[in-house]
Amino acid sequence: DGRLRPGAKRVTFPSDEDIVSGAVEPKDPWRHAQNVTVDEIMTAYKQACQKLNCKQIPKLLKQIQEFKDLVPRIDCLDLKGEKLDYKACEALEEIFKRVQFKIVDLEQTSLDEDGASALFDMIEYYESATHLNISFNKHIGTRGWQAAAHMMRKTNCLQYLDARNTPLLDHSAPFVARALRISSSLVVLHLENASLSGRPLMLLATALKMNMNLRELYLADNKLNGLQDSAQLGNLLKFNCYIQILDLRNNHILDSGLAYICEGLKEQRKGLVTLVLWNNQLTHTGMAYLGMTLPHTQSLETLNLGHNPIGNEGVRNLKNGLIGNRSVLRLGLASTKLTCEGAVAVAEFIAESPRLLRLDLRENEIKTGGLMALSLALKVNHSLLRLDLDREPKKESVKSFIETQKALLAEIQNGCKRNFILAKEKEEKEQKLQQSASMPEITVTEPLEEAGETLTASENGDAEPAEDDDRGDMTDSDSDTDEEADAGLETKDLSESPKGADAATAPRPLPSPEKPRDRPERRISVSSPGRGHKIFVVTRVESLPERAACAALPREDADAAAKPAEPQSPVPAAKPKLRVSQANGAVPESAAGSAPAAPSAGSNPERGNPCEGAAHDTPLPNGLKTDFARALPEASSDGDGKMGSCAAEHELSCSKNEQELEELLLEASQDAGQEPL
User: Fold this and answer.
1) 594 or 88, greater pLDDT
2) Number of folded domains in the chain?
3) Fewer CB atoms inside 10 A, N or C side of the chain?
């Protein structure tokens, strides 16, 4: 009868055109955010609260009313202290789907697992915040942390997460560790008092070895011990060179743990800038480890050792390491059981340091002797801007010493103020230098007096960029003495400092200095930025014997000699040896061995010989080293056989063709810029 046997099956498929009946595009999270207004947000939130049968939050309604510019991100959504249950969290979605925020503050909002996971999912989906505070929420549980980890992993905009006093326990830590290992955006992570000691810290430290984005890690108040926990932190520092701030205050690191951390610090060629070890029961033994480590650290700028019983012996152990270190700018030694003996050791470090900016010595028993040592150290230190000491003088057996303490405290503060003013002036000079270094400058001073051209072009003017650049390179110098000499130059009163190029290029006084304005000459300076933002100033300088020889000639002969010879061709007849005042004061190796040009037969013996002797045997009047005369290529001879001697320089100084002079000097500055530094 045509029927199928029992158990037989037949399968048919629709045609290709009919196999897909329809498709749905994924929902756009911002479909509600187009041209939204404050009234719409308010209405949507109130309707959601009514639908979910939950109370509206008055604090939130007030903030919504104050919203002004709704794009791109509103500064803050502050829900701190408000109790948020699951329904209240669901109602917040009507806000998150319409506006974004820079900061979402959920501190102490009594979040439970359901509410926390719902909120974190919303923040991840709508990319609601760049800074998120979930601190003081002790009951978000495993599911809450799992949602938080998913948010950290998926959200590209979240840069700051504050989870202080929010326990991250063993069963929740793996989710967060996995997120941190592949996190692409988180820069700052606060996990203070999060019960991390043990397995959670091990998981986090292992994951952070591979993290290249996190810059600040705060792990205070976690009862981290001096064995396993410190070993994990030491390993983290060995492999991660991207974390810049590590805050370990109020833990139990101990001297044994500091040894592990120091091993990691030795591997930090770049990276860690701030290390906080406040209140970790460290003693003089730990300072011995740290003292041996500090000379190897190249990036550490802030070291806070406050509230540790270091004592005088600990500071002595630390002193040589600090002197050998070239990076520490801020040092915290508050409440470290120091007395005058320890203050003397600290003062020795201050006197040796050319870069220390701030030092905290509060809550120590530093009396008259220690204050005297610190005051003396500040007289030779030109970098320290702030030295924190107890305001009230300490009790002394001799009553007059209390007044002495007050006077010493005032001296110390005045020394810091002096350094602050110097630092501000230096910063202003560097800013001017950066503005002026963008293009070369040519300055030609016109004659102002009858007897001859006076030297005023470089007075407080042209040579200043060289001085500024020399000061700007101070921190890059490898020699402490160089920096101290530079710092010493800054302390001189401006009215007593030599003018112009003398001030810029004379690191030591001349045996017989002469005032520039007494020299009858014209100065032409060309300054141009070179490699490394150095300013090269090429200046024509007349030496002392030449001036004396010229003065010995009769007035008519001197006038005749001052007249330039007519050039045979448009090209300048001679390329004079111009002195180059280089910012770093180094003589190029390629030019150091070149011999000076001998005077030719055609040159005037009465003028040529004394000038040549002056160029190579005596110091130049403005303090330039005579070796700088060899820094430029040899001068080419012209048709008359004249070489680059002082006679040619004199012709150059009196030439009427200013256009040729500028071309010649520009060419000289370009040659100087090509010399190796």
Assistant:
1) 88
2) 1
3) N
- Nearest CA-CA partner of 612 in 575, 655, 581, 644: 644
The residues near 466 (Cβ < 8 Å, ≥ 6 apart) are 501, 504, 505, 527, 535, 537, 581, 583
Given a contact cutoff of 8 angstroms between Cβ atoms, the answer to whether 109 and 135 are in contact is no
DSSP letter (8 states) at residue 593? T
The band of 669, judged by pLDDT with boundaries at 50, 70 and 90, is low
| Calpha distance 585→362 (Å, rounded) | 42
| 4 to 11, 14, 553: CA distances (angstroms) | 13, 22, 137
465 domain residue, yes or no: no
Stated pTM of the model? 0.63
CA distance 232 to 210: 14
Residue with tokens 């102490």: 108
Residue 553 lies in a domain: no
Alpha-carbon dihedral 613, 614, 615, 621, rounded to 10 degrees? 170
- The domain that holds 278 is classified in CATH as 3.80.10.10
Dihedral sign for Cα atoms in the order 506, 511, 515, 521: negative
Give the confidence band of 631 by pLDDT, cuts at 50, 70, 90. Answer: very low
State residue 10's pLDDT score: 79
**Can you tell me the mean pLDDT for 214-229?**
93
Rounded to the nearest angstrom, the gap between the alpha carbon of residue 672 and the centroid of all alpha carbons in its chain is: 30
Measured torsion, CA atoms of residues 200, 205, 210, 215, in degrees rounded to the nearest 10: 110
Calpha distance 609→645 (Å, rounded): 9
Token pair, residue 308, equals 């540790």
Residue 181 sits in which domain range? 72-427
Q: What is the pLDDT of residues 271-280, one digit of tens each?
A: 899 999 999 9
Mean pLDDT for 523-534 is 48
